[in-house]
Amino acid sequence: MNKNILFIMLDQLRFDALGHLKTFPVKTPNIDALAASGTSFDNAYCSNPVCVPARASIMTGVNSYEHGVYYNDQSWPENMETFADKLAKNCYYTTLIGKTHFFPKNRSAGFQKAVLPESHAYYLEKRGLGKKPKRTEASVSNLDSLNLAYPIEPTNVPLEHYRPIYYTDKAIKELELIAQGRECHDEGDEPFLMKLSYLLPHTPCNPPEPYFSMYGKDDIPAPNATKNELEHFSTQMKKFHAIWDQMDEERLLKNRAQYFGCVTLIDDMIGRVIQKLKDLNIYDNTLIILTSDHGDHLCDHHLQQKGSFYECSAKIPLIFSGPGIPKGKVVHENVSHIDLFPTIMEYCQLSMPKLRDPSGKFIYPDTYESDNMSLMPYFSSDEPVNPERIIISENAMQGQRFMLKKGDVKINCYINKDGKNEFDYYNVKDDPNEQNNMGKSFSVDDLEPDMKEQYEKILEQTKKLESGHYYFQNKVRPMFT
Predict the structure, then answer these.
(1) Which of 55, 424, 368 has the alpha carbon at shortest distance from 229?
(2) Of 339, 321, 327, 330, which is closest to residue 285 (Cα–Cα)?
(3) Higher-pLDDT residue of 182, 288
(4) Residues 6+ apart with CB under 8 A from 417
(5) What is the pLDDT of residues 154-171, one digit of tens each?
(6) For a Cys-Cys bond, which of 4, 93, 140, 240 suits 286, CB 3.0-4.6 Å?
(7) What per-residue confidence (pLDDT) applies to 144?
(8) Cα separation of 160 and 378, whole Å?
């Protein structure tokens, strides 16, 4: 019988911000237990280190250059089919709790029921607790918005009414209703998909106590940043760095500690939801997937939030735990957000597992060719599945740029309007902190044939988008500005 799916989505969680990885002294016992009971991918990358385009790729299984979404205020194409659409058409009850970041925001994207952030705002108003300040995207001209994103005091919303607790309560109630009304246990044939989408640890990181003061700035290792690396920034990265160069260093370092308080808070909420699955006797029949839309620089490389292809920004946690998933396994090959769609389809027996090309790439029998592949072979094989695969991540906030990663080699390509394109070149095995950028002497002719083919494919595809426009902060702007 098909299994239930609990898809846990976090916002801006770094790949290494988990206790069992021992990079930071952060407590995440529930996520650590998920990793121990399942399979982790330690080289998983987002398709775009910005919220809306990343979520578009997660839901649809294609990269930005295929679906055309690059910005947070940019509408998804109407014909974008999601894995929730597919499951809803095949006997699954689909429900979403929390942040969607679909755009326009009222799109259902295949979910039959949703509890959205607006419901929490109404919940607070009814209790006289007021509205949370509206988030704004950071910009060089808006220092106030940056200061708003890095508060020095905890929120005035009591812990029991704080948004993650509200979402968790709603998720638990929804699970109770589902278990009462559907045959979703071991022998049942009425499975569900629940996407539980938390907004944390995205800024502002000002949770209620005890989480706000749980970690001190001196408890957290110093940022991975050297003055020398600024000399090797591309033109686009210099513009990006200028956004954060105005900020007070003391405040940013405090935010690092507050960030991990948010991580522990979310871990506690995840523990509550998993316990409810067990109490309802549906845990053993439920696949749990945990990931994040992208990471967070947290002062590494003199940057904040997301948007670059540094590991802290573009690499994401990805954990599978549940029926048929090996326990305690770690996969080291490069994989992508876009692989979630075909993986879910194959896991739910909604696609044919033998339809793969010689490289192991999954082939849809009824849709167009894409860069994605099912991750199912990684669960069953002890041998490398697709070591020569090229992973793509894209961004356009300071101009068009994209990452090509093959094995341990990461090449970031900056497409400039003057035609003088720039490159970063890192070997992340030899240089895990990405401080030795060998891109200054690199050119497109130095790309390996398969990487050059992918480079040209992206440029060819995005030529169709260059004349387009998008909305950002209520203004119409041209693409790839």
Answers:
(1) 424
(2) 321
(3) 288
(4) 399
(5) 999 999 999 999 999 999
(6) 4
(7) 62
(8) 40
Residue 320, φ and ψ in degrees, nearest 5: -115, 135
pLDDT in tens, 68-124: 999 988 888 878 899 999 999 999 999 999 988 887 766 788 899 988 877 888 788
Site of tokens 């591309």: 234
Over residues 19-47, mean pLDDT:
98
- All residues at 6 or more sequence positions from 237 whose CB lies less than 8 Å from its CB, including other chains: 308, 398, 414
Domains of the chain with bracketed CATH: 4-379 (3.40.720.10)
The residue assigned the tokens 């720039």 is 422
Does the bond joining 210 to the residue before it have cis omega, within 30 degrees of 0?
A: yes
Residue type, 189: D
Q: Is the pTM of this model over 0.90?
A: yes
Q: Are 247 and 139 in contact (CB under 8 A)?
A: no
Which residues fall within 8 angstroms of residue 80, CB to CB, at 6 or more apart? 56, 59, 60, 67
Does 179 score more than 80 pLDDT?
yes
pLDDT at 354: 47
List the Cα angle 32/15/148 in 5-degree steps.
Answer: 110
pLDDT at site 369: 56
pLDDT at 1 over 90: no
Task: Name residue 97's amino acid.
Answer: I
